[in-house]
Every structure is written in C-alpha cells, then in structure tokens.
Design goal:
heterodimer, A: seven-stranded antiparallel sheet, B: mainly beta, Immunoglobulin-like, 1 helix, disordered N terminus, transmembrane helix (chain B), transmembrane (chain B), endoplasmic reticulum (chain B)
C-alpha cells in the first residue's frame, strides 16, 4: 500500500482505514507498541544496574551550576559504592522529604575511619553553601542522600522534559503523536 | 607551587584555620592532563567549555580519617589566560574542622585541581602535579578585640 500522506489522514480516508484493519492486525500493532515500551524500560533498568544509580540520567532544573550547566542539560550519573565522595565532584542529591534532586558540587568532606562520610555542597553559581537548603537541623549530607555523581553531560536535550513538565498540553500532544505514529506505521 | 602563612583560632567548639597563599600555575602545559588526552598544546581544545579550578586542603585528624576542604575556587573559561599568578589570596570559604584537629596538625596538604567541563561528554576531575604541605601551629591565636 502507498504510504499515507497528511492530507489523506486528515480526510475521512484515515478513519476508514482504521475500521478496515482487521482484529489481528490491531493486536499485532498493539503488541509491537508494547514491545517498544518494554525494551525502553529494560534499557532504563539496565542502566540503573550498571551505574548503581536509581536515576542514571537527570535533567538540570536550575541555573545554580552555571556557567557549566544550564536548565535543560542532561547529566549522566554513576553511583558506585566503590567510588569515594571527594571534593570537587558534582553530586546529585535529594534532601530528605523532598522529591526534587539538586545538582551541586562537593565543597567539604569529613570521612571517619569506618568509612562514614559527611559532606557539604554548594552550587557554582550560588554565593553561599547549601546548608540553607538542607532540612532544618541538618548540617551535612550523607551517602544515603546521594542519587549519583555526574560523569558526563549533553547540553540542551533535557529541555523537552522541562517543557513537558511545565506545559502538560505539550506532553499530551507529544504522547498522542507518538501513539498515533506507532499505530499507523505498518512497515 | 604555593606559599602559605597561617594561624588558627578556635570558634565555638571547632578549629578554624586561616591560610593565605600564592598560586602559580600553568594549566596550559600541565603534563599529566595532556598525557591522558593526547593533546600537547592546549588544554582548551574544541570540546572544553571551561575549567572549574579549586584549591583544596586535605588532612587527617583523630576524629576523621580523611578531611577535605575547598579553600578557594575559580571558573576559567575558554579564552581566559591559562597561567595563574595569584598572590596573597585569602581562602574564600571558612576552613572549619569537624572538631579540633587543626591545632598542632603538621600535615595539611594543599592541592590545586580542576574539573574539565566539555561542551558535551565526560566530566573528568584532574589533580595538578604540584602540591604543598603546610603545618598548623600548636597554639591558637588570641582573638582580637575591637
């Protein structure tokens, strides 16, 4: 069959087409779609295992690490226990009780003989360290607060995630178009 | 290549150290970096956006096996002069110890390191090849009156 062009889809031909798809073809398309989603999830889980981080890829949400990172940059993290936390490293951490991860640099560490470590962070672009951001009464971060260490990055790409978050209509449009594309595509 | 003079003062219950330092560094020709990346002439190649430089003090105390404190940092953008000649610098951040481990501590090592921030790609941390060991005195400095 010749590929569908946009004007054809906009006309009622498109609806006739869907009606004409028999049940088997429909199930096939749905399974295809399911496979794509599962593969994506498997890759994500695989990344989590390899990097040791619960969130191996994060998007930079604020300007507190400029000019190195800007809103929308994508960071690749590892969180291997064998890698010790040292000053100068860029860590992504969560403050207890808060969902949003913060990307800042380690300013100070104090590590005990048994390996327990407490450390302080600061955003490159901030005038003061992060103590004001921590929980009330909390003066240091610990290993358990760390999501991962930034090992590499790609600029700009994460902007799509931010757009989808800030403009839900955009998110629905993207999902709708993706779903449409997968269902219609028959080659 | 750093020179320091220092004195300590107790602050509440933790030692607070004061260090003044000079930094002479030639990052352009830093041998350890260029060996790893195979580029002899410039640390600022096409994929390097900036360097985040920091001077850190590393030492051990009775309480803690390892302590690291960043005393000073600077962002060096592509295009900035890669040679540093800084004199009489004061530390940007308070050099508090977690306890009283600075008094009489003979071995505080100051090292200059930097984080290479590429336009895209890996974020390596590099340590400069020079470092200096500094002792803190055995007594506290008496607090000044105003």
């Amino acid at each position: 069959q010749p590929p569908r062009s946009w004007p054809a889809m906009l006309s009622l031909d498109f609806l006739d087409d869907v009606r004409r798809m028999n049940r088997r073809q429909l199930y096939y398309q749905v399974l295809n779609f399911g496979m794509i989603v599962s593969s994506a999830l498997m890759i994500w889980k695989g990344l989590m295992v390899v990097t040791g981080s619960e969130s191996p890829i994060v998007v930079v949400l604020s300007g507190s690490m400029e000019p190195a990172f800007h809103r929308g940059d994508l960071l690749f993290l590892t969180n291997r226990i064998e890698d010790p936390i040292r000053v100068g490293e860029i860590v992504v951490f969560r403050i207890e009780g808060r969902e949003i991860p913060i990307v800042h640099r380690v300013l100070k560490i104090h590590e005990k003989h048994n390996g327990d470590i407490k450390f302080l962070t600061k955003g490159d672009n901030n005038a003061v360290d992060d103590r004001g951001l921590y929980k009330r009464g909390q003066h240091w971060l610990e290993k358990k607060d760390v999501v991962g260490r930034a090992r590499g990055f790609v600029p700009y790409i994460g902007i799509v995630t931010i757009l989808m978050n800030d403009y839900p209509k955009f998110k629905y449009a993207v999902l709708f178009l993706l779903g449409l594309f997968v269902l219609i595509h028959r080659e | 290549r750093k020179n320091v003079e220092d004195f300590t003062g107790p602050r509440e219950r933790s030692d607070l150290g004061f260090i003044t330092f000079d930094i002479t560094a030639d990052i352009l020709n830093e041998k350890s970096y260029s060996k790893a990346f195979g580029n002899k002439n410039s640390i600022f190649d096409w994929n390097v956006k900036q360097l985040f430089l920091y001077l850190s003090a590393e030492y051990s105390t009775k309480n803690n096996a390892l302590n690291q404190v960043v005393l000073w940092d600077k962002i060096m953008l592509r295009g900035d002069n890669p040679r540093l000649f800084l004199k009489d610098m004061k530390s940007k951040y308070f050099f508090f110890d977690d306890g009283n481990g600075l008094k009489g501590n003979r071995n505080i090592t100051l090292t200059l390191s930097w984080n290479v921030v590429p336009n895209a790609g890996i974020l390596p941390l590099v340590t400069g090849s020079g470092h200096v060991s500094v002792p803190f005195p055995d007594t506290y400095e008496t607090t000044k009156s105003y």
